[in-house]
Specification:
The structure holds 2 protein chains of 2 kinds. By secondary structure, chain A is α/β, with parallel strands linked by helices. Chain A has one domain: Rossmann fold (3-Layer(aba) Sandwich), CATH 3.40.50.880. Chain A is 24% helix and 32% strand. Chain A has 6 helices and 13 strands. In chain A, a hairpin with a 4-residue loop joins strand 5 and strand 6. Chain B has 11 helices and 12 strands. In chain B, helix 1 packs parallel to helix 3. Classes of the chains: A alpha/beta, B alpha/beta. Chains A and B meet through helix 1, strand 8, strand 9 and helix 6 of A and loops of B.
Chain lengths: 200, 251
C-alpha cells in the first residue's frame, strides 16, 4: 500500500512515520503532487500555526491538490483545523472541506473552574458519539490531545470530545477524515484508529 | 473529561535506567526502551526520560535512544537533561520526542524559554523546576539539584509560564527519595496560580500519595520512578485505585 504524508511547514511528523511503520507501512513524506495523487492513502498531519501553514500550502499549490483528492485522506491535529472553513488562529481562511469554524478555547470565568481547565487542552480525553469505520472495534476510546484551538460541532462531526465544551474530535465527509488528537501517540486505541483508516 | 496522567520517569545514565535516592546514590534498573514498552503496556499515560548526568558532564542527550523509544512506544514522551540550545531541541524533536524539558539552562538564561516556545511551540516545551525549602523559602536548584540558586520557586514558575512554557515539571527535592508523599502544598499553590499543566514529582511511596497529589495537590500529572522500576506499585493497579477514588483515569 502506498501511503503519502504531505510534506509542508508543520512539525511533529516523525511520530506519524513511526506509527505507520509499526503497522508495517513505510510512508512517503512528500510534497510531490503526482506522488500524492497516486497514493492509496494520504495523511495530512502536523503541529503548527494556521496562517503560516496555510500560506505555505497555497504557495506550493497543495491547497488545491488536497481538496481534489479522491482517495481516503486523514488530517491529524493542525491537519483537521486546516481542513475546516476558517480558523480564528491568525484569522485564516482554510481549505473548506468541512464547513466549520475553528475557535480558540476560552476559559470559563467561574473561579472554581480554574484548576479544571488549563489551555492548551493537553492529555488524554475520551471520544464519544463515535461514528464510522474509523472506530471499528473501539468503544469511546481515550486519545491524546495537545491543542488550543478546536473545531465546533457540525453536520460532519463523527466523534466528539468534551473539554470546556463539546467539540469535534473526529470529522468525516466522503473520503475526507480528520482527527484532532494525536492518534499516532494514543496507545493501542490510537494505533487501531490509524489501522482502521488504512483499511478503508 | 480530561484524565489525570501517571508518568513514570526513567533517569538515564550511559543509556541505562538509574534512579538516585535524593539524586545522589544511583542504582541500575534496566534497559530504557524495554522498560518504556512495559510501562506503556501497563497503562502509563506518558513517559519522561531524564539524562540526569547530562548537565554535570556536559553531555548531549542521547538522540539515538530517543529514536529507539519513538519507534517502539506509542504514547507521548518527554526528554530532558542538559538541553541548552535550539539545536539540542531540534535534534530531539526530530528524533521523535514529543516534548523536551529544560532546567538549568533556563535558569541561567530565561530568554531560552521564549526562544524555544516561539520556534517549536509552547506545547513541546516543558520547564523542569527542582525546588528545595531553605530558610523559609522554596528555592530553585540546578544541575540535578546540586546547585542552589537565589531564584524563588513560585515566582520562577510564573515567569516560565509567561515566557511560553507549555508545562511545568515540579520536583520537590525535600520529598524526592523519601517515599513520604508529594509536596502537595507547593504543587497546589503553583497549579492554582498557573494556567499551564503541572506535573508533580518527588516523594511517591504508596498509592494514597497519588490520590493526595491529584486532590490536595491539584496536580495535572504525577511522576515517579523507583516505585515503578522496582515494581512496588503496578501502574495498572494504581490507575484502578485512583479511579475508585473518583479521579478520572484512562483505563
Amino acid at each position: 500500500m502506498k501511503v503519502a504524508i504531505i510534506r509542508y511547514n508543520a512539525g511533529n511528523v516523525q511520530s506519524v512515520v513511526y506509527a505507520l511503520e509499526r503497522l508495517g507501512v513505510t510512508p512517503l513524506w512528500t510534497d510531490d503532487h503526482e506522488v500524492i495523487k497516486n497514493a492509496d492513502k494520504v495523511i495530512f498531519p502536523g503541529q503548527g500555526e494556521a496562517s503560516t501553514t496555510m500560506a505555505y500550502l497555497q504557495q506550493k499549490g497543495l491547497d488545491r491538490l488536497i481538496v481534489n483528492l479522491k482517495q481516503p485522506v486523514l488530517g491529524i491535529c493542525i491537519g483537521l483545523q486546516l481542513m475546516c472553513r476558517h480558523s480564528e488562529e491568525g484569522d485564516t481562511n482554510c481549505l473548506g472541506i468541512f464547513d466549520l469554524e475553528v475557535k480558540k478555547f476560552v476559559r470559563p470565568d467561574a473561579k472554581n473552574a480554574h484548576d479544571q481547565y488549563k489551555i492548551p487542552h493537553m492529555g488524554w480525553n475520551r471520544l464519544e458519539n463515535c461514528q464510522g469505520k474509523i472506530f471499528s472495534g473501539l468503544n469511546n476510546p481515550y486519545v491524546y490531545y495537545v491543542h488550543s484551538f478546536y473545531a465546533a460541532i457540525g453536520a460532519e462531526t463523527a466523534g466528539t470530545t468534551d473539554y470546556i465544551l463539546p467539540f469535534s474530535g473526529v470529522l468525516q465527509k466522503g473520503n475526507f477524515y480528520a482527527v484532532q488528537a494525536h492518534i499516532e501517540k494514543s496507545g493501542d486505541d490510537g494505533q487501531k484508529m490509524l489501522a482502521n483508516f488504512l483499511e478503508l | 473529561m480530561l484524565t489525570k496522567r501517571i508518568v513514570p520517569c526513567l533517569d538515564i545514565k550511559d543509556g541505562r535506567t538509574v534512579k538516585g535516592v535524593n539524586f545522589v546514590e544511583l542504582k541500575d534498573a534496566g534497559d530504557p526502551v524495554e522498560l518504556a514498552a512495559i510501562y506503556s503496556k501497563q497503562g502509563a499515560d506518558e513517559l519522561v526520560f531524564l539524562d540526569i548526568t547530562a548537565t554535570v558532564e556536559k553531555r548531549k542527550t542521547l538522540v539515538n535512544l530517543v529514536k529507539r523509544v519513538a519507534r517502539e512506544v506509542n504514547i507521548p514522551f518527554t526528554v530532558g537533561g542538559g538541553i541548552g540550545s535550539k539545536e539540542d531541541v531540534s535534534a530531539l524533536l526530530g528524533a521523535g520526542a514529543d516534548k523536551v524539558s529544560v532546567n538549568s539552562a533556563a535558569v541561567r538564561n530565561p530568554g531560552l524559554i521564549n526562544e524555544l516556545s516561539q520556534e517549536f511551540g509552547s506545547q513541546c516545551i516543558v520547564v523542569a523546576i527542582d525546588s528545595k525549602y531553605i530558610n523559609g523559602q522554596h528555592l530553585v536548584h540546578t544541575h540535578g539539584g546540586r546547585t542552589p540558586t537565589e531564584v524563588e520557586t513560585i515566582g520562577w514558575a510564573l515567569e516560565v509560564e509567561n515566557r511560553g512554557a507549555g508545562e511545568i515539571l515540579l520536583t520537590s527535592m525535600d520529598h524526592d527519595g523519601t517515599k513520604g508523599g508529594f509536596a502537595n502544598e507547593l504543587t497546589a499553590t503553583i497549579s492554582d496560580l498557573l494556567t499551564i499543566p503541572v506535573i508533580a514529582s518527588g516523594g511517591a511511596g504508596d498509592m494514597g500519595h497519588f490520590t493526595d497529589v491529584f486532590t490536595t495537590g491539584k496536580a495535572d500529572a504525577a511522576l515517579a520512578a523507583s516505585i515503578f522500576h522496582y515494581k512496588e506499585i503496578d501502574i495498572d493497579k494504581l490507575k484502578v485505585k485512583l479511579s475508585e477514588d473518583g479521579i478520572t483515569m484512562r483505563l
